[in-house]
């Protein structure tokens, strides 16, 4: 969930084989963009959400290079690679063939998904432009078929710097299950104006304008309306909910600690997993905290002290395992590179922002969905803080999914120790849709539910 490296998987986007991800890169997908009668490439005309004969839902989204990614609502997923009109699947993000073949029939709005014929679900899509201060932003409302009232979620970005309208699969997965979605390109990304920023207050103000546009477009179809903030959006969405009341708030793989605390938690967890003890961890944190001074000062202060600590410890065995969410960005940096690095990361990141005052002030019903094995945004302290809020009477539900990583994916460990995501946690998509509808079931996969 690195703040300083915009990339990743938020709300069902893309995910990658990782050892850990940073706080500047936190971890949804475009609608069909071509006319079938014009003979478009299947990589374009096949994008969309489909219903299988058994009622199951499968989404097809763009992915890296010339590949596509399918996701089923049950959490299974795979990458699709074209070979003479047939798309071959590999399981999750492992690169291992899973035996599934997919063929698109764009003329008939269908696809052959293995042995089953899946029909495209005709969602109702309205493109929009709205103003956030003097910056024009590009939005899109996606509703289920019909005329009845439906809940609507506003998708609040993680730290990625690409287009949510192009990449967020949740804009189709949830409407296929009766929940409307408003998705927008945050400032400085996609077709929106302005400059990319990680200013949480600024992004929260933009989210409230997206909320207003969603309600305007939905009109009488709008039922319950709330935010779904993923990864870095877990800091932004509660701020938006405090600015403009909503019916509910969902945070997925977000944090109730600061950006600085996140980096510290990541380093502690990574070092423990590598087998290092308290003495080595203390040294690693000494280096990291010196690096925090450099980042917080805009790369104008503290580098000499950081460089001295780096020189002192770099030959010790534990040093090669020092990473963190953004500390690692400094480990190979020279003083001559400071000015260019400062310009690269001039994103107004609020390193010391404490989310707890906002969470204590909110009486909005909230669902927090966390992964027990999240290396990018460790969930332990966040879960403890949320438990305290629950004990104080706040209307919060926490769903902790065992074995789930950042992006709510399960994983396998390769011989070299890296993780490769295999699927989304069973029950993850279901709990999002059910909470938006206002009614939770008893169980969701293997998640432990705290109310």
Derived structural class: alpha+beta
CATH architecture of the largest domain: 3-Layer(aba) Sandwich
| The CATH homology group name of the largest domain | Alpha/Beta hydrolase fold, catalytic domain
* Number of DSSP strand runs: 21
CATH topology of the largest domain: Rossmann fold
- Helix percentage: 25-40%
**Beta-strand percent range:** 25-35%
Largest sheet: 9 strands, mixed
Shape: globular
Low-confidence stretches: 5-40
Top CATH class of the largest domain? Alpha Beta
What is the C-alpha radius of gyration, as a whole number of Å?
22 Å
What would your notes on this structure say?
The protein is an alpha+beta fold. The protein has three domains: 2-26 and 123-258 and 353-450, Alpha/Beta hydrolase fold, catalytic domain (Rossmann fold), CATH 3.40.50; 50-120; 266-344, no CATH class. It is 27% helix and 27% strand. The protein has twelve helices and 21 strands. The protein has helices spanning 42-45, 164-167, 170-173, 200-218, 233-243, 259-273, 278-296, 303-313, 338-344, 356-361, 380-391, 428-437; strands at residues 2-3, 24-25, 48-51, 57-62, 68-72, 77-83, 86-91, 96-105, 110-113, 116-120, 124-132, 135-143, 150-156, 180-184, 222-230, 248-252, 366-371, 396-401, 409-413, 419-424, 448-450. The strands form four sheets. A nine-stranded mixed sheet has the order 11-12-14-13-15-16-17-18-21, sandwiched between helices. An eight-stranded antiparallel β-barrel has the order 3-4-5-6-7-8-9-10. It has a two-stranded antiparallel sheet with strand order 1-2. Strand 3 and strand 4 (57-62) form a beta hairpin. It is globular. It starts with a strand and ends with a strand. Mean pLDDT is 91; it is low at 5-40.
